[in-house]
Fold:
Amino acid sequence: MNEMNIDISIAHQTLTLLDSAGTTKAVYCISTATNGVGCEKNSGCTPLGTHIIRAKIGMGAPLNAVFVGRRLTGEICTPELMAQFPNRDWILTRILWLSGTEIGKNRLGNVDSMQRYIYIHGTPDSEPMGEPHSHGCIRMRSADVIALFEQVKVGTRVLIN
Structure:
């Protein structure tokens, strides 16, 4: 597999997948944090800087499969299920768990992206894309997160700027 890199633009609400030569392979519309950018624990913000994919979770899970605590619940997200649990932060289909690489900025202490459970993950199709709407994670359409998941590996660099 060709070495890939991911660049996330907060300003444009896009995730760009690049190959090792810097050629754009795909551009996806995303949603980052409603609270803006920031690296502090409990801020509800999307962290900036260089990260890596620390874990890939959900390989083979069905489209719109529901995760709670990084575990499949056995549920498939539907409008009815969403109405039953209106306050859930829907994490669907696949999870790419991010770990910061910049000590003091997004790694260790009060700014650790992995300890904050910052993911790239699927979200219901009814949720808006292209505008900040998450609780800190990078949300994608479920079909898009499957496509991305299949093209990256653990250790892939992710730059959030």
Summary: The two ends are 26 Å apart (CA to CA). Residues 142-151 form the longest helix (10 residues).
